[in-house]
Hints:
Distance between the termini: 52 Å
Strand content: under 5%
Radius of gyration: 21 Å
Order of helices and strands: HHHHH
Number of helices: 5
Shape: elongated
Mean pLDDT: 84
Structural class: mainly alpha
Helix content: 55-70%
Number of domains: 1
Low-confidence stretches: none
CATH architecture: Orthogonal Bundle
Amino acid sequence: MTNRRQKANPREGSDFDDFLAEEGMLADAESVAIKRVIAFEIAQLMQTEGVSKTEMARRMNTSRSSLDRLLDPSNDSVTLQTLERAAEALGKRLHIEFAA
Length: 100
């Protein structure tokens, strides 16, 4: 019987972000996560404030289908202008920051 040395796992000790970065998928994964958080936060604020989708669309001066796209966690084509209108419609300010 020969004693074979096993190859070390090149990803041992790394985290999932490292894996995604190595595979070139980190930016896409982060974009999806951010959009899901945004959609969730807007929906939560609407529920807390008792604002229906129809009322929210009216306040934003947009269509109900546009609002549905904003609230769709898988739709990543949201603009800053749309986010600003959503925040204003809920009596909030949009705050964006860069983090390390």
